[in-house]
Write a structure and sequence with these properties.
Length: 361
């Protein structure tokens, strides 16, 4: 590998760490400003929170996914803090009705993406203790064990040995795994390859490379994702609602029209048949503006979904509820599990500041 390529990969890892430091500084400042009472967002009516893993801290998990996991104790603290701040807790499907009364107390909605087993083991008892409803967005390809989670495969692949052979499109090349920084850089490069290529073909290539190294790409799915029987049992809990999260967890904006329609309708039909109930909500995989736009929002509506959520970071303002197929959410980030951050996140102030910072660069 040339010095230029090594430098670019190291710069990528350094850039990620720098962005995390900037976000931390902004969140700290936002929490102080929010606590002071100086920041009032009159347009805000509520917030939809995004969660993934809820589980005790554990060693050996993918460090690139630490922002997507929180502890049960912190979930308990988030709910208690929001209640102290005057938030009411509603189901996602109640959002449009709740938003018609802007004079009411602000609302909070909890959603959890992908269908992880720890959502039942650790999150459900917390929600039940507080009597807080929640929505699990299940990816049917994970539940059926037909699709792998590429981010877990990539992590496992970059933890093996001192180097990795992989074809990024110009023939097989040797990728160093000789140090923690090298492994992180390799993971980031694999991630970019997945997201900048035909995603299905790229994942197939990744899975084949993993299999060649003795890694089973389906093992993380079997170990961490709910199976059909578990999902059926969860769907019968009075606080739980199940929504769709596509079949393959691919970026919707990069699919053809037919592929997009198939992902939406098949995931919905599978869940409705399995659970014997209507599925009316959808979460766009990845969910940023580059992965879900007007075409995808319209397709979700045409496929019968009444509400769809993105991962665009913002509270729900009154005027946004009229566009119920492109709702923003706020990620509860596992890197910042502090009580003082909860009010700031719910207010949306950190994302306004981050948006201003990004636009000024």
């Amino acid at each position: 590998m040339t010095h230029f390529v090594k430098t670019k990969l190291q710069d990528s890892a350094a850039s990620i760490k720098l962005k995390a430091l900037i976000k931390t500084a902004i969140l700290e400042a936002s929490s102080l400003w929010t606590a002071s009472g100086l920041y009032k967002n009159s347009a805000m009516h509520g917030v939809i929170f995004t969660l993934h893993h809820v589980r005790p801290s554990q060693s050996g998990s993918n460090p690139q996914q630490k922002n997507l996991e929180i502890t049960p104790d912190f979930l308990d603290l988030v709910i208690s803090t929001l209640r102290d701040l005057g938030y009411r807790f509603i189901r996602l499907e109640e959002l449009e009705t709740a938003a018609k009364d802007p004079s009411a107390q602000p609302f909070a909605v909890f959603t959890l993406d992908d269908g992880y087993r720890d959502n039942v083991t650790y999150a459900l008892p917390v929600f039940a203790r507080h009597q807080v409803p929640f929505t699990i967005f299940a990816c049917s390809g994970f539940i059926q064990r037909t699709h792998s989670m590429w981010w877990e495969t990539a992590f496992e692949l970059t933890q093996q040995g001192h180097s990795l052979q992989f074809d990024f499109g110009d023939g097989r090349e040797q990728v160093s795994l000789a140090s923690p920084d090298a492994r992180e850089a390799a993971y980031q490069r694999l991630s970019r390859f997945i997201m900048n290529s035909d995603e299905a073909k790229a994942i197939d290539k990744l899975n084949q490379s993993a299999s060649d190294c003795g890694i089973d790409p389906m093992k993380p799915v079997d170990e961490t994702i709910l199976d059909e029987a578990e999902l059926i049992a969860l769907s019968r809990h009075p606080l739980a609602t199940i929504g769709a999260h596509s079949v393959s967890h691919r970026a919707m904006a990069r699919l053809t029209h037919d592929e997009l329609t198939e992902e939406l309708t098949s995931s919905c039909h599978y869940l409705e048949t399995l659970l014997s109930q209507e599925i009316c909500t959808f979460a766009f995989p990845y969910g940023h503006r580059a992965e879900a736009g007007p075409r995808e929002f319209a397709a979700a509506g045409a496929s019968g979904f009444k509400l769809a959520v993105t991962t665009v970071q913002a509270p729900v303002c009154n005027e946004q509820v009229t566009s119920a197929l492109q709702l923003p959410r706020v990620n509860i980030d596992g890197r910042w599990q502090r009580r003082r951050y909860v009010a700031a996140l719910a207010s949306g102030l950190p994302f306004r500041v981050l948006g201003t910072f990004a636009n000024s660069r």
